[in-house]
Design brief:
- The structure holds two protein chains of two kinds.
- By secondary structure, chain A is mainly beta.
- Chain A has strands at residues 4-7, 10-13, 19-25, 32-37, 43-49, 56-57, 64-66, 76-78, 87-96, 102-106, 110-114.
- In chain A, strands 2, 4, 5, 6, 9, 10 and 11 form a seven-stranded mixed beta sheet that branches. A four-stranded antiparallel beta sheet of chain A has the order 1-3-8-7, with no helix packed on it.
- Helices cover 0% and strands 55% of the residues of chain B.
- Chain B is built from no helices and eleven strands.
């Protein structure tokens, strides 16, 4: 089945360590996104990429980094510079809906906990 | 950035009751999307709206794109226990240039259904 796969589902990290969250899609979508979700808040955009080898900062990019070397893959690295990294991270890709407007398809998420 | 006000923040209802939630924006939107998120999972698209005044149904769900283009509502009829979850609205503002870009998400409505 086509879809978006995020891994790992759960990740524990010690303070000061970098971690990388994987996001792979086989939907042949051009654009991919990373969002952060905290309790009681909406989804906040970290980074997005419209095409391979190109990406832009979202609203809360500080302390994060990404790469887009392949169309199918958009990994997110949470660096030690991110002051409050414990959160639920969602990856999404973009497809055109019935009327041509783009909608997002999400992965199942990765929960990162900093110990 | 864009602001979306989603209300109510939470709802506790009995099975069989109808539910209504809405989102308002300070700006004009071209697209309204409604997502549902089950606990520990990624959001799943319920309904996409592309035209002012558009009314769309998906089973027991009905959503409308407000005439002013600044609001949308979602109704759920005859709620069942599996309707439990977080419901998010998302809007894409009218802007020039590429239609790629940033959806703005509401803060979510947490729905609890008592059997």
């Amino acid at each position: 089945d086509g879809g978006i796969t995020q891994s790992p589902k759960y990740l524990f990290r010690k303070e000061g360590q970098n971690v990388t969250l994987s996001c792979e899609q086989n939907l042949n979508h051009d654009a991919m996104y990373w969002y952060r979700q905290d309790p009681g808040q909406g989804l906040r955009l970290i980074y997005y990429s419209q095409i391979v080898n190109d990406f832009q900062k979202g609203d809360i990019a500080e302390g994060y980094s990404v790469s887009r070397e392949k169309k199918e893959s958009f990994p997110l690295t949470v660096t030690s510079a991110q002051k409050n990294p414990t959160a639920f991270y969602l990856c999404a890709s973009e497809w055109k809906g019935a009327s041509g407007a783009n909608v997002l398809t999400f992965g199942a998420g990765s929960r990162l906990t900093v110990l | 950035g864009q602001q979306l006000n989603q209300s109510p923040q939470s709802m506790f209802i009995q099975e069989g009751e109808d539910v209504s939630m809405n989102c308002t924006s300070s700006s004009i939107f071209n697209t309204w999307l409604w997502y549902k998120q089950d606990p520990g999972e990624g959001p799943v698209l319920l309904i996409a709206l592309y035209k002012a005044g558009e009314l769309t149904s998906n089973g027991r769900l009905t959503a409308q794109f407000g005439i002013t283009r600044k609001d949308s509502f979602l109704n759920i009829s005859a709620s069942i226990p599996s309707d439990v979850g977080i419901y998010f609205c998302a809007g894409r503002p009218r802007a020039g240039g590429t239609s790629y870009g940033k959806l703005t998400f509401g803060q979510g409505t947490i729905l609890t259904v008592h059997p």
